[in-house]
Design goal:
Number of helices: 9
Largest sheet: 4 strands, antiparallel
CATH architecture of one domain: 3-layer Sandwich
Helix content: 25-40%
Distance between the termini: 177 Å
Radius of gyration: 60 Å
Strand order of the largest sheet: 5-6-7-8
Strand content: 15-25%
Bound molecules: FE2/S2 (inorganic) cluster
Structural class: alpha+beta
């Protein structure tokens, strides 16, 4: 009998121990001590009055319900005010605008300067000297200068020789030369001068040597290979393929202008409009007629 009573007491005691342990494990599940739960009393999850009678499971259930709630609070916003553009004068120039405008201005200035330099480089300049039209001078004065220089007048700025063309040979010349050449050659007849004028390129048509005059023969005689030309540049001997080249000429109001940019090929071999023979000893060999 005593054994039965003892067993019953043990069972009752075990049940009481198990119930107490279960209650403590619920509260420990939320990780809160008694003191902490007391401080958290205002937390709604713990109860308005700080009631610590809520179990851990109840707290977790309440938190889960809060997270999974699908209700969305709709907040009414105030009506939008109409847009009013700000006054630029009131705003002034911002720092961003200042830098942007400065950058664009400097780039524009640089591009403009480069463009102006290119245009200035490509703009046709006033050309003078060889290759341009040279106003050589008054025909009367030129004829006087030719005479005083033993029949030949050299103009280095035009790389040319100026000589007189006899008026008596003009008719033959008209049948041989172009209008550009004749303008100077016939100026004596047309203008009432003692002779006309012819402008010859100093470059030998053979291989390009500068052809000097020969005072004794009154011809041009090339020292390179011996080509010879009479006083008006018609070939008289040597290996040259033609007479001396000459420039286009024009005479206006008695003034001769030579276009050194327009070189006219010399007359073909055999052309001899003046019939001028060597007037003295040749400077280079002898003429090959
Ligand atoms: S270059 Fe004048 S004759 Fe040859």
């Amino acid at each position: 009998m005593a054994v039965v009573v003892a067993v019953v007491l043990l069972i009752v005691l075990a049940v009481a121990v198990l119930a107490g342990a279960s209650r403590r494990s619920d509260r420990k599940a939320v990780g809160l001590s008694r003191e902490t739960r007391r401080r958290d009393a205002p937390n709604p999850l713990m109860g308005e009055s700080g009631d610590d009678t809520l179990s851990g499971r109840e707290v977790e259930a309440a938190a889960l319900a809060g997270r999974t709630s699908t209700s969305v609070a709709v907040v009414e916003s105030a009506p939008l005010a109409p847009f009013v553009a700000p006054d630029p004068m009131a705003l002034g120039v911002t720092r961003r605008q200042f830098f942007n405008r400065s950058l664009v201005g400097m780039m524009g200035f640089g591009v403009s300067g480069f463009g102006a330099a290119c245009i200035a480089f490509l703009w046709p300049q006033g050309v003078s000297g060889f290759g341009s039209k040279i106003k050589v001078g008054d025909v009367t004065q030129l004829l006087a200068d030719i005479t005083s220089n033993n029949g030949f007048l050299y103009k280095p700025e035009g790389r040319m020789w100026i000589t007189a063309y006899p008026n008596g040979a003009v008719e033959k010349a008209r049948a041989t030369y172009s209008a550009q050449e004749l303008a100077g050659m016939t100026s004596g007849v047309d203008g009432g001068f003692d002779a006309g004028i012819i402008a010859l390129y100093q470059k030998c048509p053979h291989l390009g040597c500068r052809v000097p005059n020969c005072v004794s023969s009154q011809w041009f005689e090339c020292p390179c290979h011996g080509s010879q030309y009479n006083q008006v540049g018609e070939k008289r001997g040597g290996p040259a393929p033609r007479g001396m080249d000459r420039f286009a000429m024009s005479v206006s109001d008695g003034v001769l202008t030579v276009d050194t940019g327009t070189i006219i090929q010399g007359p073909p071999i055999g052309t001899n409009t003046t019939g001028q023979e060597a007037e003295g000893p040749n400077c280079i060999g002898s003429a090959d007629h």
